[in-house]
Amino acid sequence: MSYVLIIGAKSDIAKAIAREYAKHGYDLYLAARNVSELEEFANDIKIRFNRNIKCFELDILDYISHKYFYDSLEEKPLGVISAVGYLGDVSETQKTINTNYTGVVNLINIIADDFEQRKSGFIVAISSVAGDRGRKSNYIYGSAKAALTAYLSGLRNRLYDANVHVMTVKPGFVATKMTEGMDLPEKLTAKPEDVAKDIYKAQQNGKNVLYTKWIWKWIMLIIKSIPEFQFKKMNL
Predict the structure, then answer these.
(1) Considering the entire predicted model, what is its pTM?
(2) What is the pLDDT of residues 83-115, one digit of tens each?
(3) Separation between Cα atoms, residue 210 and residue 192, nearest integer Å
(4) I need a surface site. Which of 44, 150, 172, 214 has the fewest CB within 10 A?
(5) Each residue's pLDDT tens digit, 146-158
(6) CATH, domain 3-231, list 3.90.180.10, 1.10.472.80, 3.40.50.720, 3.40.50.10090
(7) H helix runs in 2-101, sequence order
(8) CA-CA distance, 29 to 97, in Å (whole number)?
(9) What's the sign of the alpha-carbon dihedral 228, 186, 181, 96?
């Protein structure tokens, strides 16, 4: 079984994804900033699932380092999963856009070139339902995720003939450190473990776009259908 590369590996969702893939027999590359913080987690997976786990320092905003990072992997991964995300406000516009979009795209482009040449592999990236329609509460974050969604759609079409699968993941509310303190509706809020299971199953089945929880597909369909003149008046 080959390695799966998880970037942004310190997030709650990323850790749940790592457990899910390790449980199904995959070895893992875990990449993140301050990677020493992942050592205890990596050792736990290694022992619990008897898998090879390797950790790598990676700053998604250090664009120049991305090619060096990928070239340094002795065994190129079977697939990559981006769980990078930063929920910044208007005062952090540049960091929010660069973390959620520019940095992720820069690294995935490098990986995509390799996968295209090899004519195999899968690319999964976590976008968000926030990218389906701009809302005043998080429109900077949402716009970055919308850009990522559009990028993944184009990449999916580019890599189709090369037998490389590209999947866009659009979570709704998820109970993580990033959303801690928010008043989230319980029935619409997923656990990271549930998101991870949905991602693994959808990736294995070759799904193109995944909403998780599934009900968010229909919620966003309704939200996108609201006329703009009415949507402006809503406290969203």
Answers:
(1) 0.94
(2) 999 988 889 999 999 999 999 999 999 999 999
(3) 15
(4) 214
(5) 999 999 999 999 9
(6) 3.40.50.720
(7) 12-23, 39-49, 63-71, 93-97
(8) 25
(9) negative
